[in-house]
């Protein structure tokens, strides 16, 4: 079978705003796809509503490989619950690229080091928790209820927005998915808990939420998608070139991921990726039902 090539420029729609981890990773990857295959890849930000501003437009495009989406798995395994027009079945799942470093963050000057410190502080001050979407806001509420405290939720645009709210003192606690690394390393922010299934790289000795009896994992992955119905040969060719880039130690995309989302890229494709999205969607439906009770 002849190798697939696009008929013209490929549009790479990025589901989050300029300057964040999704944007930087997507634009770097687009540049390296061009260098490796000679395909013209044009990134464009379509931010808003957990990536669904982008995905709602993506689902209406032809599944011919000329229009791709770059967002996080939450865009597909959680956000459709809040839409009458979106379903996880609306998309072709091509490949993941990296995983998050989800953590609960606070300013170092707060003196907090653990969730117990956050709980103690809530007795004397209002806790404002910055987040970027419905799922992480629900996660903050689950943590708050588990600790027996009240929080106000502050919705920002993307992970960069939540950090800005925390640093500017509009919030005193926030989620971070990986973009927090420079501020943690500089000593401005501290990690109170991992929200992954294991410790985050910046705090290898810090327990997870699950270690502390809170049944919550907010980890996500970065993902390339297309409209449903993409032929396998196109999906496989696009997935192949991205995998080649991500395994190359000299790749700028790989180096960015290793620095921002350590320890290394995460490449899941094909039926395994589709099953991951669908099963996580069902788990998230159950989580939201439990929260509503």
């Amino acid at each position: 079978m002849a190798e697939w090539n696009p008929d013209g420029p490929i549009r790479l729609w990025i589901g989050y705003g300029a300057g964040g981890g999704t944007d930087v990773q997507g634009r770097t990857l687009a540049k390296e796809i061009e260098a490796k295959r000679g395909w013209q890849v044009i990134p464009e930000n379509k931010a808003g509503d957990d990536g669904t501003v982008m995905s709602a437009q993506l689902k209406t495009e032809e599944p011919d490989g000329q229009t791709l989406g770059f967002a996080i798995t939450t865009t597909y395994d959680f956000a459709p619950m809040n839409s009458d027009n979106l379903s996880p079945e609306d998309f072709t799942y091509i490949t993941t690229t990296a995983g998050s470093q989800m953590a609960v963050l606070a300013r170092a000057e707060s003196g907090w080091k653990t969730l117990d410190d956050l709980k103690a502080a809530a007795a004397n001050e209002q806790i404002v928790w910055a987040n970027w979407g419905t799922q992480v806001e629900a996660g903050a509420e689950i943590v708050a209820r588990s600790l027996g405290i009240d929080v106000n939720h502050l919705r920002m645009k993307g992970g960069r927005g939540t950090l800005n709210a925390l640093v500017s003192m509009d919030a005193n606690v926030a989620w971070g998915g990986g973009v927090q690394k420079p501020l943690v390393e500089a000593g401005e922010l501290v990690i109170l808990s991992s929200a992954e299934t294991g410790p985050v790289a910046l705090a290898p000795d810090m327990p997870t939420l699950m270690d502390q009896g809170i049944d919550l994992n907010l980890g996500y992955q970065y993902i390339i998608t297309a409209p449903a119905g993409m032929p396998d040969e196109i999906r496989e060719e696009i997935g192949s070139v991205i995998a080649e880039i991500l395994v190359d130690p000299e790749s700028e995309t790989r180096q960015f991921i290793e620095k921002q989302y350590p320890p290394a890229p995460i490449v899941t494709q094909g039926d395994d990726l589709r099953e991951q999205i669908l099963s996580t969607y069902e788990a998230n439906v159950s989580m939201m039902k439990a929260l509503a009770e």
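The first strand starts at residue 10 and ends at 14. The two ends are 54 Å apart (CA to CA).
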